[in-house]
Queue: 2 jobs
Job 1
Amino acid sequence: MISTENGVSSIVKRAPDGLKKIAEKVVAGQRISEEEGLILFEEGSLPFLGSLANFVREKLHGDKTYFNRNFHIEPTNICVFTCNFCSYSRLYAHREEGWELSADDMLNIVKKYDSKPVTEVHIVGGVHPKLNLEFFADVLRRIKAHRPELHIKGFTAVELDYMFRKAKMTAEEGLRFLKDAGLDSLPGGGAEIFDAEIRQKICADKVDTEGWLNIHEIAHKLGMHSNATMLFGHIENYRHRIDHMSRLRRLQDKTQGFNTFIPLKFRNKDNDMSNVAESSIVEDMKMYAVARIYLDNFPHLKAYWPMLGRQNAQLSLSFGVNDIDGTIDDTTKIYSMAGAEEQNPSMTTAEIVTLIKQVKRKPVERDTLYNVIRDYSNIDIKEIEMNPSMN
Ligand code: V47
Ligand code: SF4
């Protein structure tokens, strides 16, 4: 922990002249402006940003590092959209190259976890032209009938927007319908970059920024929580990143419905943006740090370890991150197909706890809404390995 009185004053004292005022504001718990956010990206050194972000992280969460026990269902990779960064989707015309699960297939995936202490299923996939709202509502109802306490975090605003338009429902009608069928919260995908010009270049045909924000705002109004992502490290610049985070910060001021911000590093394997170089690890850590400092009303910052790799996820815990997602079954292909570090992302509880303890943080298992399930700080790894209710 560095957030002692001395630690705090030394962050401000050691700040370069142009950044002292910003450091003072952050340490005093004041919000920084868009221009100040931009200065952090442009002029902040990695050690400076790291110590400031770590100060914020420790003020909010101490050494606690959250993870959850979850698994993924990816109903299909057939998609009507053609996002240039996507390595995962296949058009309906080429559906023989993709996959499509039936409602029974999805229920069978859920049943595979019957004896496991998972708390969340994350459902996300492509936007299939033949699957509709009623089909997915039926899947939700069947999952809830089988395992009522399992939290269903499902469908990006992109998938929802398409389903609702096809069903000729407003976002509010559609969300009420899915909530009644068992949907508990929304994941953060599909946000990409909110700037209209960049969005047009990387994902022109799917839900626009206003549509994405509107779906999340309505979900929050209906009492559902959600996450927010940002795809970074491609053709956007720092100003676009700040603009993206500002729009989220404004909506969060209004609704307080977001749990977590998840910056997603662009991976360039086998997609139409393979000519764009991937960002360096230094840039990735800067991204986490500025996000932690800038998004003062977001309680949590998540590093998605299957994309970053385990060691980089450990490193991110010193740059503002306080959550490294879940144990995650290997059915998630969205990143492995784009060239992520982890080809079959899966970690046992003992492995995730070890990963967090190795960098002297406190592993805490949470549910989707960040209620604490178990603090593992004082539990021995051997005990975890031998206890089926923990692994
Ligand atoms: O929206 C697709 C991203 C997202 C690439 O809410 C890519 O807890 C990098 O949103 N390089 C979907 N990223 C996944 C998602 C998510 C993941 C983990 C946790 C949560 C949560 C949400 O995946 C898409 C897009 O931004 N993506 N292709 C790529 N080549
Ligand atoms: Fe479809 Fe999502 Fe891929 Fe875009 S990112 S093409 S919406 S699966």
Job 2
Amino acid sequence: MRFLILVFIFLLAQLVNAQKKTVDQRVDSVLRLMTLDEKVGQMNQYNGPWAATGPLTNDDNLLTQIKAGKVSSMLNVTGVARTRELQDLAMQTRLRIPLLFGQDIIHGYRTTFPIPLAEAASWDLEAIERSARIAAIEASAAGVHWTFAPMVDIARDPRWGRVMEGAGEDPYLGSLIAKARVKGFQGRGLGNTDAVMACAKHFAAYGAAVGGRDYNSVDMSLRQLHEVYLPPFKAALDAGAATFMNSFNDLNGIPATANKYLQRDILKGEWKFKGFVVSDWGSVGEMINHGYAKDNKDASMLATNAGSDMDMESRSNIQNLAQLVKEGKVKLSLVDDAVRRILHKKFEIGLFDDPYRFCNEAREKEQWNNQLNLDAEKDMARKSIVLLKNENQLLPLKKAGGQRKIALIGPLVRSIKEHLGFWSYDWPDDSIRITSLWDEVQKKVGDSKLLYAKGCNINDSSKVGFDEAMSVAKDADIIIMSVGEARDMTGEAKSKSNIHLPGVQEELIKAIMATGKPVIVLISAGRPLIFNWTADNVPAILYTWWLGTKGAEAIADVLFGDYNPSGKLPMSFPGTEGQIPIYYNYYNTGRPATSDSDRFYRSAYIDFSIYPKFAFGYGLSYTSFNYSNINLSSTSLKSDQKLTASAVVTNTGKYDGTEVVQLYIRDMVGSVVRPVKELKGFQKIILKAGESKTVSFTITTEDLKFYNNDLKYAWETGDFEIMIGTSSKDVKTAKLTWNK
Ligand code: NOJ
């Protein structure tokens, strides 16, 4: 029997190899037929004639260029009809090489899911994978082959508008989420028509732009790059990400787009990445502005030599690369390598067998308003909400019956499209298919009377609506305020120097609080905002991000107790912009402040707290959890041993609830200084009211590794602290020694 199994495995391996070979051989057979111009055409990507996310180069003869084989891929072209139209043109080229259609499917297509940062707050990898899966199913049914996602940039600066696209500040959580998203997008694997190719972006360190200003320079040690910024990319690659996108920033003086160290040495060298790298929008040509390339030709040479395979919208390759090869400035072998990588993916997803296999009207229709997708979206949205404060158990609210008058006040109460957040698609029927908070609260309270006042706009200084809002508030028994950012205040090119609640919204909150009525504040935003007065004075606060198509339903479910919130912050919330960057895994320094009263020649601010307003990993529930009996299987371990660390978590409140139990480790002494704590595990558990569970984590020396000063990834013997708790700030600690 064993023999038969071995034979079977051997044959299977042969078959897989044979198939792989076949793709390689087929790629080569096409490559052999290609002229240099046709090869360069494969390294060129244009924006579709219908939409743009950056400065667009208008090409009257775009369609002619496709027919001439000068275009490999298009972005921002979706829908079966449109993709078919353009694919028809590609089928008129000499070699009939199909076009690839790429699109920013960042958090859903027709069904918009919560913004990625919100999803990260769920700490729910299965739900996040499902969200990406559904996005892929819907997008692929609309002719899309490739998403420019996940964005896996670690972000420690909420001024940077693109924090909304990622998983927050932590490399461990970020890596698991990167993997979940890649798995979700690519589903059962490339070649299935419901899979889209993932694209890990932006390689690399884009999230560390100086001052949180988008597109800005990045200057960091290689150790920090490897330890904090690269792990999610590696995780995406290990999960099979088909493509990578390089980035706009320079890294230590070399633009990422022409960064050999990143693309050739690490990605394609050490990590053995077999897919292809697309540039960011215009990032090849922008190297002229960086002062790194002297002209577009130079830019094409630098990018290609450094391992950037496809040029998005710069026209640098298409205009210069053939000439560069002729002049010997770019080796033909590098062009061949890039083209091979691109063709390989086109083969893998089956386009050479059937260029129209993603063009199926019936399938496209089936995914339009698919109820299962919408249900999954609502589930994801509820899981993403973070309860920041709930004094005297003001929440959840009672539904209909002997009910008080509820007032809904604020500029976002009646919003529809805002729920979709940045990087989402507007559809003509959005105002019908998406509901507002007003609609959903109304459904919950039946005939109870609802009152409304807008109070103010999101972002201006007018207070003309305050009086009306206050009189509505006075007439109500309880007030729900919906405030925050507009959906386009975060996202690409949406950096802000001031991240306080915009406009006069916090003043409106103060005015309403002055009525003495109980107030609940909902904050919708794409980044951590600053709202200290609200945080200190309002009894109940929910952070609701941008939650997508079913966002309002999800919020209403949480408000009225149909769902007990369990989200945990994936980023630290600063109390002032001056604290930024603020993150939980910092180094202790030689003069750490132990509290806010410990300021005498300490690493602290003389005018502000050392603490974030809300810590990484923080989030409440309608119930309460107690952590006790932290236990280690041993306090003195040897290298090959495993440690089991556990704690007893008890639901001490009166609701059933979900808790994200977090494990942090601190390496007390290292050959380079180590963070005060690092997330190394978490478990999301459900506890009935009164129930206790022992939550255990297995830890090995793998979990202790870090990049030392020689960039070697290794662990060092010595003392460690193991912390288990409900947030990065609230943990129980045990100590141990680990020796060789
Ligand atoms: C620029 C953005 O940086 C990138 O993330 C996006 O995929 C491209 N534009 C295409 O829209």
